[in-house]
Design goal:
Number of helices: 11
CATH class of the largest domain: Alpha Beta
CATH superfamily of the largest domain: Lactate dehydrogenase/glycoside hydrolase, family 4, C-terminal
Helix content: 40-55%
Number of strands: 14
CATH architecture of the largest domain: Alpha-Beta Complex
CATH topology of the largest domain: L-2-Hydroxyisocaproate Dehydrogenase, Chain A, domain 2
Largest sheet: 6 strands, parallel
Radius of gyration: 19 Å
Order of helices and strands: EHEHHEEHEHEHEEEEEHHHHEEEH
Distance between the termini: 32 Å
């Protein structure tokens, strides 16, 4: 891929740009932010690591969207971060204005781009980008499911003292406290975690996965997670750039799938060169379906609050 833009030069954006460069997913990376000097300085710092990390990707920083022209892929990380005591939904109106403004600029300069949204509240911000851009739904993707699943996989691996490489899990729903970890689809080396852990321990791991973000916020005090979210965003980018067609959980616009309509929600999708190539529908139990609907309804309620 020729050009990838990362919007927002804070911790998430800078880490995302660094990971994209080190994986050599583009010939050129543009890091853009409204604060003068910050994207320029961070981009130069990352670029100066190229001889050591052995990547040939060019990285530049800017405050002008003209420099992002003809981007093939745009990762939007900009927005206010959470602080202790805040939910992701507390950021709703502030970040909706930010994402709306960004999306308008991206449409002006890169109308063919695929958008990956990382800003919180994730599912509603992804809807904002879809609505404002007018892009096809396959080109506007929310990052959250990969991050939520990664956290769940890590906690399972740690509890069992096994490699994370052997842990498979699936987390559906909105990126929030109502996310839906699917125990039936979570296993270690093909063995269900229900065979390996008592129910009480599994419930503890589910609760920790749901609160994985705020756990980090409470430690940091002044911001949120960025290493794992950037890794999740770049996993999406990697599958798109290399047309890997990986099956990964992402926030996708649903039009009847899982019995849900006109809402962004985390579900497994096939990611290829066109973005979301396919939504994979799993057979859910009545309890799982009810939990997914509850999660999606919370996203829909927040979408309705926006005047878009």
């Amino acid at each position: 891929m020729k050009k990838i833009t990362v919007v927002g030069a804070g911790n998430v954006g800078a880490a995302t740009a660094q990971r994209i460069a080190e994986k050599q997913l583009a010939e050129e990376i543009v890091l853009i932010d409204i604060i003068e000097g910050v994207p320029q300085g961070k981009a130069l710092d990352i670029w100066e690591s190229a001889p050591i990390e052995q990547f040939d990707t060019k990285i530049s920083g800017t405050n002008n969207y003209k420099d992002t022209v003809n981007s093939n892929l745009v990762v939007i990380t900009a927005g206010q971060p959470r602080k202790p005591g805040m939910t992701r939904d507390d950021l709703l109106f502030t970040n909706a204005k930010i994402v709306k403004s960004i999306t308008e600029k991206i449409v002006e300069y890169s109308p063919q781009a695929i958008l990956i949204i990382v800003s919180n509240p994730l599912d509603v911000m992804t809807y904002t980008a879809l609505k404002v851009s007018g892009f096809e739904k396959n080109r506007v993707i929310g990052m959250a499911g990969i991050l939520d699943t990664a956290r769940f996989r890590l906690f399972i691996a740690d509890a069992l003292k096994v490699s994370v490489n052997d842990v498979t899990a699936m987390v559906l729903g909105g990126h929030g406290d109502s996310m839906v970890p699917l125990i039936r689809y979570s296993n270690v080396g093909g063995i269900s975690i229900s065979e390996l852990l008592p129910e009480q321990k599994i419930n503890e791991l589910v609760d920790r996965a749901r609160s994985g973000g705020i756990e980090i916020v409470n430690h940091l005090k002044t911001g949120g997670a960025y290493y794992a979210p950037s890794a999740a965003a770049v996993e999406i980018a990697d599958s798109i750039v290399k047309n890997r067609r990986r099956v990964l959980p992402c926030s996708a616009w649903l039009e009847g799938e899982y019995g849900l309509n006109n809402v962004y929600c985390g579900v497994p999708v096939v990611l290829g060169k066109n973005g979301i190539e396919k939504i994979v529908e799993l057979e859910l139990t009545a309890d799982e379906q009810a939990a997914l609907k509850k999660s999606a309804d919370e996203v829909a309620e927040n979408i309705e609050k926006l005047d878009l």
